[in-house]
Specification:
Elements lengths: L3 H11 L15 E11 L4 E11 L2 E12 L10 E2 L9 E4 L4 H13 L2 E2 L2 E5 L11 E3 L7 E5 L3 E5 L2 E2 L5 H11 L8 E7 L3 H4 L8 E8 L5 E2 H14 L22 H22 L1 E4 L1 H21 L7 H14 L3 E4 L10 E4 L2 E4 L10 H5 L5 H20 L12 H22 L9 H22 L5 H10 L2
Antiparallel strand pairs: 1-2, 2-3, 3-5, 3-11, 4-5, 6-7, 7-12, 8-9, 9-10, 10-13, 12-13, 14-17, 15-16, 17-18
The structure holds adenosine-5'-diphosphate and the ligand O=P(O)(O)O[C@H]1O[C@H](CO)[C@@H](O[C@H]2O[C@H](CO)[C@@H](O)[C@H](O)[C@H]2O)[C@H](O)[C@H]1O.
The site of adenosine-5'-diphosphate has 20 residues, from strand 10 and strand 13.
Length: 476
């Protein structure tokens, strides 16, 4: 390994260019190496690092598998850290992209071994195959997931949080109850915290670093399916004589998504029921609902300060939060998905499967863990239909829709049709009827939109116009 000062300098330059880095809205003030564990010696060598990244008075922790080679093959050049300018006799790179090194993870998981502070666990009775090579997936994601053959998917969490990861806890609980809507978990990787952290209270348990689950290789991602449907609808040319209403009838295109949206609503209600059975339901008193609405508004104020493009919508958003506070009724709350959107669902031959129960990655662990009303997830998915509908017209660099017409009319028609179908499926399968809870749904939807504006500013600045354009229409 090169000297620590040289390494941290290179990392501070490399990190902001990574999709998974969540601090793109400000400079890195300092970067240090929290823990370093060698997992393989020789050439190539593998080191597990936790990077402590200091920004604006806050320290975030990121996980990196650091590969070290004397010579870098072409296939790894795109993940080099430091590059040719760094004067050193070894080459450094992100080893998540190197199947020669990631097979170490499978071997350790299969053995259930420990290495320094790292603990590798397999689920009871799981016999983990070690003969598979990995490939990183290309989906839009905040972490990094590796496919091992068409058997496993291993998610390596990038921004780490203290305590057991909710994704692991919820997946284990639902798989144990035989819930058909989640993939089975085969193993997980943890970091045993040092003595300082262990003394730090209830959140000071092991840090979840990775999760090995069944790879549902026949599954199609909900976002890709929805975007294909939106493209089809935008390309649809009404027949002569169809009249101006044709622009509003999103069912007319061949790639209609509404039947899938309805099934997804039903699967969502079933998972909410399973979560209530597994973790219970409690009631949030009316005063705390008022406090929740006040928190939503405070987040709005903070986000408007950081992202001025949100300010024109502030009045309408505040109105929705005030309506929630004025409702003055207690709210049943339970464990929910917490960051529900089309990228978190897979359509397999058996129906819809839900992924990634870790909550919103841009929020602190305590907030992710907070129980919520299930309609918060419904609102998340409704936002996702808005995103899918407006992605093609709002995100710079995407292909403008053909063959013309009024893009916003088309986007609105697609979103409205699929929102309604999803809500219908959810209510028919026993979930709370979104139509009967419009104040709640509107407040949750706007809360999510504020979160999205912050998430996009920090993670994917090029996407910011997507939530802002959708808000312009929802608040008009
Ligand atoms: N068990 C699985 N089987 C098949 N594909 C999966 C599985 N888990 C995740 N994926 C794919 O990986 C993508 C990202 O997974 P996700 O858990 O949402 O990661 P992140 O938290 O980093 O956003 C999903 O959108 C899905 O396409
Ligand atoms: O999937 P993650 O847990 O990483 O969630 C984060 O990233 C999502 C994007 O990858 C982000 O979702 C937003 O963009 C989606 C399209 O890419 C869209 O379907 C969602 O509706 C929208 O919120 C999510 O908010 C963030 O937490």
């Amino acid at each position: 390994m090169p000297s620590r000062p040289a390494l941290t300098r290179d990392l501070a330059e490399w990190l902001p260019r990574q999709r998974w880095f969540g601090g793109k809205d400000g400079p890195i003030d300092d970067l240090s190496i929290g823990t370093a564990t060698q997992l393989r010696s020789g050439d190539p060598a593998l080191h597990h690092l936790v990077l402590d990244v200091h920004q604006n008075g806050v320290t975030d922790h990121y996980q990196l598998l650091l590969g070290v080679r004397s010579d870098l093959p072409d296939r790894l050049r795109h993940v080099e850290i430091g590059g040719r300018t760094a004067r050193r006799d070894v080459r450094l790179y992100d080893a998540a992209h190197d199947p020669d090194l990631t097979r170490v993870l499978l071997a350790e998981l299969a053995a259930g071994s420990s290495s320094g502070p790292l603990r590798f666990h397999h689920a009871p009775g799981a016999a983990i195959r070690t003969d598979l090579a990995s490939l990183p997936i290309t989906a839009e994601q905040s972490n990094t997931s590796l496919l091992f053959g068409d058997v496993y998917i291993c998610k390596l969490f990038r921004r780490l949080s203290r305590g057991v990861n909710l994704d692991l806890e919820v997946n284990l609980a639902l798989s144990r109850r035989g819930c058909a809507h989640v993939p089975s978990v085969h193993g997980w990787i943890e970091l045993e915290p040092g003595p300082d952290a262990r003394a730090g209270g209830p959140d000071a348990g092991p840090v979840t670093l990775g999760l090995l689950s069944d790879y549902l290789h026949t599954g199609a991602n909900g976002w890709s399916l929805a975007i294909a449907s939106v493209r089809d609808w935008f390309a649809h040319t009404p027949r002569p004589g169809d009249g101006e209403w044709a622009e509003l009838d999103a069912s007319a295109a061949g790639g209609d998504f509404a039947a899938e949206a309805e099934r997804l609503g039903a699967a969502t209600a079933e998972v909410h029921r399973a979560l209530a059975d597994a973790f219970g339901v409690t009631v949030l008193p009316a005063a705390e609902v008022g406090a929740m609405a006040a928190r939503m508004n405070a987040e709005l104020t903070g986000t408007c300060r950081d992202v001025p493009g949100l300010a024109p919508h502030a009045k309408a958003l505040t109105g929705a939060f005030l309506d929630l506070a004025a409702r003055a009724e207690p709210l049943p709350v339970q464990r929910v998905h917490g960051d529900y959107h089309l990228g978190q669902v897979l359509r397999t031959e058996g129906g819809w499967t839900l992924l990634d129960f870790e909550g919103e990655p841009a929020r602190p662990p305590a907030e992710r863990r907070a129980l919520a009303h299930p309609l918060r997830d419904v609102a998340g998915m409704l936002r996702s239909f808005e995103y899918a509908a407006r992605f093609l017209i709002a995100k710079p660099g995407t292909k403008p829709p053909e063959p013309g017409g009024r893009p916003e009319t088309r986007a609105h028609a697609w979103a409205a049709r699929n929102r309604a179908a999803f809500c219908r499926g959810y209510a028919a399968a026993g979930g709370a009827d979104p139509a009967a809870h419009s104040v709640l749904i509107r407040a949750f939807e706007f809360e999510k939109a504020v979160y999205e504006v912050r998430y996009e500013a920090r993670n994917r600045p090029a996407w910011l116009p997507v939530p802002l354009t959708s808000l312009a229409h929802l608040t008009a």
